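User: Fold both of these, please.

Assistant: Here is the first one.
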Amino acid sequence: MRILSRALPAILTASFAAFSFSQQPPPLQTAALESHEGMTVSAKPWLDPALYKQPFPKKSPFAAGLIAVQVSFRNDSNETVKVALDRIRLTLHIDAENLQELNPLTAEQVAELTLSPHAKDPTARRRFPIPIPTGSGVKSPRDKDWTAVQQQAQNAAVPTSVVAAHTTVQGLLYFDLQGQLDMLTSARLYIPDIAIMGKNQSLTYFEIDLSRPAS
């Protein structure tokens, strides 16, 4: 059975000084990673509230129960590839019969949930799986606070879906865990679609176990 919660598609396109392009591949030892066919994908969930202070100096998505996953796409091949960012899923294996899939959030959705009056406490314990919200119909006004969080989320997101040969693209993906951080013990980041540009050819999918970071 598949259970969805606030599962909304995302297209994360922006640039940020700390989350951008690199000609020199950064070290990946601190993140869970998978590598094949000349492509290395790493992923590191941000579980420390202090990590959010630089990209989100005032209103933190983490305080609202959202989680950011820092991802890096390193292309060591001679071909330019394109990552279908909107098809990435955070899969949560609740038990042998239940799998929950979360879509990445857009910057607009991050702002909406961060400023929601029903924001969740990330340190509170809740029952699994993530409940399907009924919603109160109350939305955050698109004021200067909303605009600030939306721009901050966009600036820190993965800046592009295109990874040129011998370059690295990195940034954040956002997911709504509703504060249930314990669910990351069964989480995998599923990246089903990385295509070689100019060719009718795709790489094998990536599925990164976030519960077992590389040492």
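And the second sequence with its predicted structure:
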Amino acid sequence: MTGDAAAQTEPRLRPPAESLDPRVKRLWALHGLIATGVVAVLGIVAIVVWSLAGDPPAAALAAGLAGLVALGVAASLVGARIAYRFLRFEVTPLGLYVQRGWITRSWTIVPHTRIQAVETTSGPLERALGLATVEVRTASAAAARIPGLDEGRIARLREDLAAMAGEGEAT
């Protein structure tokens, strides 16, 4: 088989049609900013303790910590936007199709007949933003996780998955 013929027979996946609720960018940015805040507090405590114990280069340490915090803030804000662009999902006749990843991409298709449970979870920040995470489980493990959905979209996703599961026969 030539290279052209092989390229024509290889299956090609298109990106899933649906994106997450845009508020998930705020959620992910908040997670990153909280982690950055924890690092900043620990760094300040370390500088203070070191200052009390001896004569550290406090100005250099403070400048380094400020740079680290600035990097953490930038990564939180930019990373949330990038992650949002690269996490998509769709309910298709074959199953639940989820694409994720910016540097390392993964495509997951969970056949409807393999779905055993659809779980919804939400932490305090998710609840404050009106969002939740849906996890689809199969007999072997958690097969797909979709964060950042609002309650209306979760209800429609459950209905879609239940309707599609009713069309096939479980094995």
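The chain has a mean pLDDT of 87.
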